Amino acid sequence: MTLAISISGKGGTGKTTITALILKTLLEHTDKTILVIDADPASNLPDVLGVQVDTTVGDVVEELKEKTERGELMSLPPELFEAYVYETIVETERFDLVVMGRTESKGCYCYVNAVLRQIMQTLSRNYDIVLIDCEAGLEHIQRRVDQDVDVLIVVTDSSRMGINTAKKIVELARKMGYRATRIGILGNLGADARLVVDIASEVGAEPLGVVPLDENVRKFNLEGRSLLELPSDSPAYQAVKTVCERLGLI
Ligand SMILES: Nc1ncnc2c1ncn2[C@@H]1O[C@H](COP(=O)(O)OP(=O)(O)O)[C@@H](O)[C@H]1O
Ligand SMILES: [Mg+2]
To answer: Is 206 a pocket residue for ligand 1 (Cβ < 6 Å)?
Structure first.
């Protein structure tokens, strides 16, 4: 059985950082097969992980759309789309990574999104764990990008916008019928444990704790180094490891 986890929240709250540190925890403490999905159109997860990605799913969508418009392709059978999308998956030694990029540039992409969701579901089945670094804000919920995940990790800082976004994500996920068995609030960038408990109890989510400000994370970011190489005694990594234990991931 695949366990799918999404990481969401307002922009800049640390979604990508936390996704990378969850991945690091899983790599160091399990031998599970992992697919990481960068679902943020303002993608930077590959950089944070130190992986080079040349083609995104959005590039493939654009290419196929242009081919259809030029008449080179009469229709877009799902199998063809699927084959193209599979080609964008980057395989590293220990995990696979797929970057969505911009998949909804203009016009109605309902068909593309439906097929894409289907592909993601089929693709996900090949892995023990799927980690999704979501687009900032509520868009991913409205587009039901992570509707089939088992665990929803909603990240917040201590700002009003961060907190409101986190609450709205939880409320909207429920309203949209998300089937996640666990929905948790995780504090980062100065949000304290008390705040996380308050937010969580207000929306009926699980308080997952806090990730402290970590000088190493800041330094690695500035130097463009992969967070997978962050020293294991770094406070942010230790905190994320505790969250993973709490969620039964390790
Ligand atoms: N716990 C932390 N300690 C220090 N810096 C952090 C921490 N979490 C995030 N950051 C920094 O904050 C910025 C935003 O984080 P990022 O993960 O890119 O947010 P998001 O993906 O939500 O937009 C980045 O520069 C990142 O290095
Ligand atoms: Mg990000």
So the answer is: no
Cβ within 8 Å of residue 61, ≥6 positions away: 103, 109, 112, 116
Ligand sitting nearest the alpha carbon of 227: 1
The one-digit pLDDT tens for each residue of the chain (250 residues) are 899 999 999 999 999 999 999 999 999 999 999 999 999 988 899 999 999 999 999 999 888 888 888 988 888 788 888 899 999 999 999 999 999 998 765 555 667 777 778 888 899 999 999 999 999 999 888 878 888 899 999 999 999 999 999 999 999 999 999 999 999 999 999 899 999 999 999 999 999 999 999 999 999 999 999 999 999 999 999 999 999 999 999 9
Indicate whether residue 188 lines ligand 1 (CB < 6 A): yes
Residue 105 DSSP code: S
Ligand 1 mean position, distance from CA 17 (Å) = 5
What is the Å distance from ligand 2's center to 45 Cα? 7
User: Is the distance from the beta carbon of residue 114 to the nearest atom of ligand 1 less than 6 Å?
Assistant: no
Dihedral of CA 41/90/247/232: which sign?
negative
**pTM score, two decimals?**
0.96
Q: Is 12 in the pocket of ligand 1 (CB under 6 A)?
A: yes
Determine contact, residues 212/235, Cβ cutoff 8 Å.
yes
Domains in the chain with CATH codes: 3-246 (3.40.50.300)
46 alpha carbon, closest ligand? 2
Instruction: Round to whole Å and give the CA distance between 237 and 228.
Output: 10
